[in-house]
Specification:
The protein is α/β, with parallel strands linked by helices and about 325 residues long. It folds into 2 domains: about 120 residues, NAD(P)-binding Rossmann-like Domain (Rossmann fold, 3-Layer(aba) Sandwich), CATH 3.40.50; about 180 residues, NAD(P)-binding Rossmann-like Domain (Rossmann fold, 3-Layer(aba) Sandwich). The protein contains 12 helices and 12 strands. α1 packs parallel to α12 and α5 crosses α7. The longest helix has 19 residues.
């Protein structure tokens, strides 16, 4: 079996015990730069039986997949699969797997960190002191405030737990609510508009998909309280970036904490860089050793299970 890793940059797999485990399963080729174009990606994987995908910058379009006649499995290191044309993969008999839950603790902690950083004005005060000034103005206490969690997968559930541990009142929204899930998570499910109106902090934990593209736009931001904070550690495409910039600039909402953006890396002259009421993080929510090793182990396990005829963590196409 030829196993290709087209995009291990910066390296997370190379040199680890999981690389050695992967090499026990087949002939492994690891590329230490990103495959940023369809041509470069296809050049690397055209003769692969299995691809282990590290970076979402590798886009497995229908056209790319149609030119990979040997390809039978794409094992994604990560939860999001928006860089893979899942329907095309299914049509072509290519199995796609991911690593759900591997980063729930890490991303949950980052979400809470961004909430605190924005609410307590940590970044602004740090900059003020470094510039010779001093702190002024009230911060926001999170205890007693209402947290609205969008998406209740593994990460969303962790954020619900963390919010409650901070003394916050938590409500949630999901595409598939049920009384059983509400009881299990210990949370009230509400409609999205109601969540936006009632919440003091809105934290997004959804997969990128056609259903979530620009889910939070200008209309939705206008529903939020002028004292509210928006947190996004999911995908930049879920929030209309221009609408968010305007909402932050004109005081429609009080602030935001962002680990993801529409275009990454964030362009040098991007307007978000100049706004004082947003805390920016370079898509690092899951970048802790514990999450990295857990995700790599799951991605390699998915390869092994597939080869043994018992595929795990398979991503299915949405119904037509």
């Amino acid at each position: 079996m030829r196993i290709v890793v087209p995009d291990d940059e910066p390296p997370v797999l190379a040199g680890t015990a999981e690389e050695e485990r992967l090499r026990q399963l087949g002939d492994v080729r690891i590329h230490d730069s990103r495959a940023l174009t369809a041509e470069k990606l296809l050049h690397r994987i055209a003769d692969a039986d299995i691809v282990v995908n590290i970076r979402a910058t590798s886009v497995f379009s229908r056209e790319v997949l149609e030119h990979c006649p040997r390809l039978k499995l794409i094992s994604i290191y990560g939860v999001g699969v928006d860089n893979v044309h899942i329907r095309a993969a299914s049509d072509l008999g290519i199995t796609v797997t991911n690593t759900p839950g591997y980063s729930a603790v890490a991303v949950g902690e980052m979400s809470l960190s961004l909430m605190l950083a924005v609410a307590r004005r940590i970044v602004q005060n740090d900059r003020s002191i470094r510039a010779g000034g001093w702190a002024r103005g009230y911060a926001i206490q999170l205890s007693g405030k209402r947290l609205g969690v969008m998406g209740t997968g593994n990460i969303g559930q962790r954020v619900i737990e963390l919010g409650k541990s901070m003394g916050m009142k938590v409500i949630a929204w999901t595409f598939n609510p049920s009384p059983e899930r509400a009881s299990h998570y210990g949370v009230e499910f509400v409609e999205l508009d109601e969540l936006l109106r009632r919440s003091d902090v809105v934290s997004i934990h959804l997969l990128a998909s056609p259903r979530t593209d620009n889910l939070i736009g200008k209309r939705e931001l206008m529903l939020m309280k002028p004292t509210a904070i928006l947190i996004n550690t999911a995908r930049g495409s879920i929030v209309n970036e221009q609408g968010l910039i305007e909402a932050l600039a004109n005081g429609t909402i009080a602030g935001a904490g962002l680990d993801v953006f529409t275009h990454e890396p964030l362009p040098p002259a991007h307007p978000l860089r100049s706004l004082h009421n947003v805390v920016l993080s370079p898509h690092t929510a899951a970048m802790v050793p514990e999450a990295t090793l857990a995700g790599l182990a799951m991605a390699v396990d998915n390869v092994g299970h597939f080869l043994r005829g018992n595929p795990t963590n398979v991503v299915r196409p949405t119904p037509r």
